Input
Amino acid sequence: MRAWITLFAAAISLAACSDDHGSGVFGPPTESTCPTGSTLTYDNFGKSFMERYCTRCHSSELVGAARKGAPSFHDFDTQPGIKGVADHIDETTAAGPAATNKGMPPDGLRPTMEERLQLGEWIACGVP
Output
């Protein structure tokens, strides 16, 4: 029973940075692929994307209410932090051939479709 409670609590916390507590936040995997010759890297894409759209909630420098519900283990101000939950980012924010996920960010400035497609590609390439 304790394992179920822990699992349930973790699932709720993954709704991160949203007032709706998860309804509509997670979508299906985008099934994006990494094209040969992809030039997207953390330095030329990922870092600026995360700073523009994500780190207002998902930053290791934020604590408590400043995180607006983002789980403490979902910090997108470092490349390793992003890699650790890249599948969640794909299912909440990226676009690809199988899905366009717009669950994040829940408010404020939002990525364009082109940026969401690039995010899907970058994740599919392993968050280089």
Remarks:
- Residues 3-23 have pLDDT under 50 and may be disordered.
